[in-house]
## 1
Amino acid sequence: MNNYDNIIPSNFIEEEILEDLKSGRTKEVVTRCPPEPSGYWHIGHCKAWMINFETAIKFNGYTNLRMDDTNPSREQGEFAESYLSDLEWLGYKPRAVIFASEAYFDKMYEIAEDMIKNGFAYVDELTQEQQLAMKGTLQTAGQDSPYRDRPIEESLKLFREMKDGKHPDGSLTLRAKIDMSHPNILMRDPIMYRISREHHYKTGDKWCIYPMYDFAHPIEDALEGVTYSLCDITFRVHRELYEWFIEHGWNKPYAPKQREFSTLNLENVLLGKRHLKALVNSGKVMGWDDPRFMTIIGMKRRGYTAEGIKNFIRSCGVSVSESTIPFSSLEYYIREDLNKIATRAMVILDPLKVIITNYEEGKVEEIEIDNNPNDENSGKHKGLFAREIYIENEDFSLNPPPKYNRLVLGGMVRLKGAYIIKCNEVICKDNGEIDYLKCEYIENTKSGQDNSGIKVKGTIHFVADVNAFDCTIRTFKNLTKAEYKWPSKALTEGATIDDILEPNSMIESKAKAERFLLSAKPYDKFQFMRKGYFTLDKDSTDNNYIFNSTISLKDSFTPNVK
């Protein structure tokens, strides 16, 4: 006998599951991810999949990945394949990968026939436009179709003819016989099957009729042995219909339960597969994996970590209450994880040349740089110090503001891992812009060996010219303008893509990076000292290393501590 006394539920769903297990209503916890393969997953989907997987794991159950591929006009194998790699990247492994079109279409058809035989479904000859006009409103009842009470044998014959391709697309539908005056409009004789001669990416042309989502979803769950169908709150209005199809189409003990939780609402983030698809098709972004997208593949390319994303979603909790989450909350958890794992490197994003006039020309010294001070096993890598170096333009000022602790004319600063230097002269171009600095290094001040007694207030990073290579830096703003707090909603209310897009949301620039980074592989993560977190982009070549800016080093956001 299972002992569930050690399981402490952390939300209302787990409380119900624990009660079901103890009472014997449920024998095991089986959940599912049922994506329609019509686009790439985004962060909103992550919450649903995490809840399904982690709930099952907590109760020693399992989760299936089911491709809910019942709409061939929108679905592609490319998207289905992406879900497998996305789940692997997130760290979840389904017990099985199931394609509804291959596993359940035959059985769903049999169940639909049985429902006709039992008087729970009928074939309708009204067009979908006529059906919609007769649905009624929230205040008025709908009207029965004139075909609602046609003989069972006639509906069965017509349904089989639909399957055999004897009727044109859109001419007939199979509808559930429920109640045209039901207060929930979804319950007013919904369509179960429609005729559509669409080529299916899995089953080819085997079928010319396809089940509708509200029929397919509960029946697939039941056939699969799912015990808990966990989905976001937008499906709550569908629960009554879900349960009706389970009762009238499945009608067996231990039927699955649908339970809902709040959606993930991130401020100023464009979600929704149809909106993202429109952007991809417009050519205004680099594709579904554009680093400005909150798709899984986009976040991965940007340099976000799976653990950071999961920790963020866990921090949101599981409830039915809708809330708005600031984007800085997600960034906090990404930054927290990157700080633990990102390799440190010195990169100059806005180079200013410095010549160390008293350092021997051609001489080079090695310096040691910690790969990650938070990981004692991360080791060190070699940097170089030489006569010509680059520092950040912002690390020198001719007119320093108050409390400026970096390099000034006549002032001193320490170079990270190397010497203290003093600026003696500023060389300007003909137009008055600074061309380069002439500095001197102070002997006996090398980091770890300094016995000079000289104290300086600032430490800056640098890259020696002999140790530098040119790379491309991509920096990003939010994809959508700040005034569009809910960009997806704005698009549905009449705004255009051009209205909501932030101009120049991606800017490319050149930088000087230490040659240590030439060994980087795509998706490797780095902290560019004093600047932020970056990852090597997949489009990098031997002649052009591209680093995507992932996130800044610091932010003011502080998570709630419970």
## 2
Amino acid sequence: MADVAAIQPIRRLLIANRGEIARRIQRTAHEMGIDTVAVYADGDVSAPFVREADIAIALKGNLPAETYLDAGKVLKACKRAGADAVHPGYGFLSENASFARSVARAGLRWIGPSGDAIAAVGDKLAAKALMEELGVPTLPALEVKEGPGLAAAARETGFPLLVKAAAGGGGRGMRIVQESEDVAEAVASARREALAAFGDGTVFLERWLTKPRHVEIQILGDNHGNVVYLFERECSIQRRHQKIIEEAPSPAVDATMRARMGEAALTVARRIGYTSAGTVEFLLDGDDFWFLEVNTRLQVEHPVTEAITGLDMVREQIRIAEGEPLGYAQDDLSITGHAIEARLYAEDPSNDFLPAGGSVHEWQPDDGSARFDSGIESGSDISVDFDAMIAKVIVAAPTRREAAARLARALERTRLQGVTNNRDFLVATLREPAFLIGDTTTDFIDRVSPGRRRELSMSEKRDALIAVTVYGQARRREGAKVLGNVPSGWRNTFMPPEAATFRVGDVETRVEYRSRRDGAFDVSIGDNDYRVTVLSQEADGVDIEVDGRRFYAAISQCADQWLLHGPGGDIELLELPRFPTGSHAAVAGALVAPMPGNVASVQVANGESVSQGQLLFTLEAMKMEHRITAQRSGIVSRILVEAGDQVDNGALLAVLEED
């Protein structure tokens, strides 16, 4: 039994993070009777996590380096708010040993492992060395030093290889290299990205396995020498080395493998006196596994572990920091059912998953059995300065197949419109036969290639066009300035039908409609005619019957864009104006930004001849670098941006003329 006198309750917790993880920590803290303090960048002033905190302190700045990565500002905020503890969440300062020590020196409780434990294994190179000493299998790795010797280090590591940041995680500061001539640029790019994301540009080379599984063991330790592992998660569905679907338990891990990997994780935890939550990650291939890294923090995917164990990971972290023992041993833990998490990102799967910041016009999570951890609401802006994740959606079920089906349905029934996102891709992945049988190696996306976007059926397009047409007609009638008492569509002579033209995807469709004396509509789309009855009209949708089939569609409008959520999910339609508008696409040889972001570098000059595939610009968005290359050979006749500029999606960067 714990010594009650030794327990020091936390009364006010500062959360040194933002978005969904800040809200998630707030939720548990408030349930435990603990006040919370939010810190925020200028652009986050109206974010839900700021409003929901008991106290919020401005960090005065926009970029990560001048806000959430500024340890001095965060510590001053602690003092100003009267906080007695700090929870770092994940990312930013969560694996910064110096910051953890500074928090402790300031007399505050740090919700995480000690600074010494972070230093021992938080650095990936140090962790590898420790694992080798403990006899855990590791992949060959070499730190990249300044100066000559890079080519030799690459040859010694072997190809393909991975350039990897020694600090942080989340796929940032990582580059796969197939050929020796690409190593130098990959190292430079990874260093810049790691420095921007974690404040540490140290990188190393590691041998790259092409088709393993990514399996991690969740550990938890208290300050009384007790340590357990909470089984495994599989996180093999990845793009750009970032996880997008995680599950627990792994479909490839049996009881024997689980015990082997769990004991390996506990070996290192006991060696360094690990406390709080942490994750030991492995690459798994058949019966063999190799140590990958230790994440000395709460993981993004922790909810799936919570779902199968019944433990609240943030609550456990807080209890440990207050001085309580775990209160359970390894044999007390068991797995119940199966859980899967999908990460909703503001990105375009059809455009190589490039980030797509913007405004979220509609956000209505499904009200079924899924758990939603989100940092947004309708009207939220997704900034290019931070991570592109919108929300995590988690489902637990008795079986893996049922969990996948429930999660796919929850995603389909969620309304998320106004910002390009990966929801349709996630649904397609969850319903892929290869996923359902557990064939989930890290090359899954390239090998299986799930659908990048939902292909609408003819009936879905028809229903959407009809619903928007009659809804828009009613809205216009309600706003009529004259003859407001005249029935809609009334004419004193026979006139042609009213019409509107919409674009759904790349297809333009003309819809003609005429009101009837009984209040119904005759609608024509192409050669097909429909009888439409409006059963009820609301401010945010319409309940209609089309040729005897009834359905409801939630509808909103943003300029010429109609946002509809019907039985099949989200659909967006563009109502075309009477006259065409100009665009950069009309400029011959136009090179446009594929996403919003900051121009990190300009690699060419006006008048320069370039070849196909040559690097022209580097854009930085969502804390990652993206290369803009020439799609053909030519001469750069105009450059319209310079390093440091912030550009919107589709902004004209340069004009490339033929030789």
